[in-house]
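<instruction>
Derive C-alpha cells from the sequence
<data>
Labelled lines for chain and fold
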Amino acid sequence: MALIPLAFALAVGTLPAQETASVEPFRVAVPDTVLTDLRERLARTRWPASEIDGAGWDYGVPMAYLKSLTAYWADGYDWRRQEAALNAIPQFRTRIDGVDLHYFHVRSPHPDALPLVLVHGWPGSVWEFHRLIGPLTDPVAHGGRAEDAFHVVCPSLPGFGFSSQPTERGWSSQRMAETIAKLMARLGYDRYGAQGGDWGGNIVSWLASGDAAHCIGAHSNFPGASAPTDDPRRDVTPAEIARMESRQKELADHRAYGAIQGTRPQTLAYGLNDSPAGLCAWIVDKFWAWSDHDGDLDNSYSRDDLLTNVMIYWITDSMPSSVRIYYESQHNQERPASMTPFTTNSREGKPAPMGFALFPKEINVPPRAWVARARGEQMIHWTDMPRGGHFAALEQPELLLEDVRTFFRLVR
C-alpha cells in the first residue's frame, strides 16, 4: 500500500479578525490507511545482518536502540493522541510565493503582546515549539508577567511538514525568510520579533537585517562565527577555546549528512521516503549527536516527542523536499519564478538588534568575542547556557523561554 502524501485536512472554523480572506483554518487528519501502512512497513524492516561489537553510537544508530524505538513506534506510540495535541493549537495555511504555508498562530489574551515568529530548522519541525507556546502567549497563567506576552506565529518552512513542497530551484533559507516576512505582513503585524535555531537561526538573522523596518529584534540559539583574521584570541578565554575544540572533536564524524544533502538530496530521498526505520535512524542520529544527554537520549527527550517529530516527516512525505534546503542554500540558484518581489524600508540600513543563547552541545560553539566582532553593535545580548543542545526548544524549553523573555525586554 502506498503512503498517501500530504495526509491532512482543512478544518471548518471562524478566522480571527486579523486574518485575511486568503487564510484557511487547518487541521491534521491522517487516514487510518497511512497508519496501517506504517506499521506494515515497520514490521517488514530488513535489518542489517551484523554490526560491530561494542561500537555503541560510533558507527551510527545502534541496532538495539533502533529496534526498541521502532517497536514502540509500531505498538506503543499513540499517534492519535499526538495528533490531538497538534490540533489543540490553532493552525492555518495561506498561499505565499506559490507555497501553501502552514503555521501555528496563537493570539495572546494580553492586548500589548508582541508578535513573535518562531522558526525551526532541519530535522526539526513546528513540534519543537509546542511547550513554549502557552508560556509565551499567556505568561500570567504560567507564573510569568503580562508584559512578557507574545502573539506566536510558528510556520512550517516551505518543503517541511504541513507546508507544500516547492518544485522550483532556488528555495534557499534566505528566500524562505522573505516568505516568512510576507507571512507576518499578511497577518497584519507591522512590528514583530523573531526567534530560531539551526536554519531558523539563519532565517531570523536575515529578518533582523532584511526586514528591519518591521522586525524589531531577533533571538537565536544558533550563534555562528568564524575565527577573525585579526588576533583571533583577543578577548577569548582558554575555557572557550577548550569547549570549541572539544565540540569539534566530538562532531568530527558527524558532518557527512550535510555533504550528502547539499549535493545529492534526490538520491538520498528514495531510501528515506520508503523506509520508516531508515527515516527514523537518519533523524535520531542528529538528535543523538546534537543533544546534551550524557549517553542516554532518554535524558533529553521522551520517545513520544522524538517520534512525533519523525511522524511529521513521514505522514507528509516531506523528508525529500526538506533536505533540499541544503542544496539550495549551498548553490547560487536563480530566484524562483513563483516568488513575488520583496521590498522593505530597512530603517536606514541599520539591522535590528540580536541576542544569542549558546547551549553547550550546539553544533558550533564559537567564543562570544567572535560573534560580537562579527555582529558589532547589533549583538546586545548573550547567554552561556548551563546545559542543553541544538534542539533547545524541545530539550530545554524553560531555559530558552526565560532567555527569549530577557532579550525581548531590551527591545520591546
Remarks:
- The two ends are 52 Å apart (CA to CA).
- The beta strands are 23-25, 91-96, 99-106, 114-119, 150-155, 192-196, 215-220, 354-358, 379-384.
